[in-house]
Amino acid sequence: MGEGDGSMTATLVSTRVKSEQSVADKVKGFRKAQHILDYLGARVAVDTLEDGEAYVEGLGGGFEIVGDEDFFDIPVFGYRARHVFTRQDAGLISEVQIVPSELAQVQEAAHGIGGSPKRPSSRCTK
To answer: Is residue 44 a part of any domain in this protein?
Structure first.
């Protein structure tokens, strides 16, 4: 399984429903509720970029892809991932974060202690 045999490796790491507080914070930031694209979210770990591409192709076969942000080529604060937004049957948009397996482990640990690897802490001085 792996390189050259047409298979791919992808592991569902986590799923979530955006908290009421997180929605309220975004709306306070002058974002309209109907423009929030990640009420539902999932994180999927892949072993290679090719596995990530194959996973996105699979998503496109089952859902309408309405957005795609690629942070692999241009990482933000060292964050490397691909965020794909899909429209569900009922019209709800969900976000699937596709991340390298190694990064997924770090992200889960950081989220477990209240951190967010996407944004530096306000306590960070450098």
So the answer is: yes
Answer whether residue 50 is part of any domain: yes
Residue pLDDT, tens place only, 25-78: 888 877 787 778 888 899 888 988 889 999 999 988 888 999 999 988 888 887
Q: For 76, which DSSP code?
A: B
Q: How far is Cα 29 from Cα 19, in angstroms, rounded to an integer?
A: 16
pLDDT averaged over the chain?
77
- Please choose, from the candidates 12, 18, 31, the residue with its C-alpha nearest in 3D space to the C-alpha of residue 98: 12
E strand intervals along 51-112: 64-70, 82-87, 93-100
Pairing of strands 82-87, 93-100: antiparallel
* Dihedral sign computed on CA atoms, order 87, 90, 91, 97: negative
Answer whether residue 84 is part of any domain: yes
Distance CA 12, CA 46 (A): 9
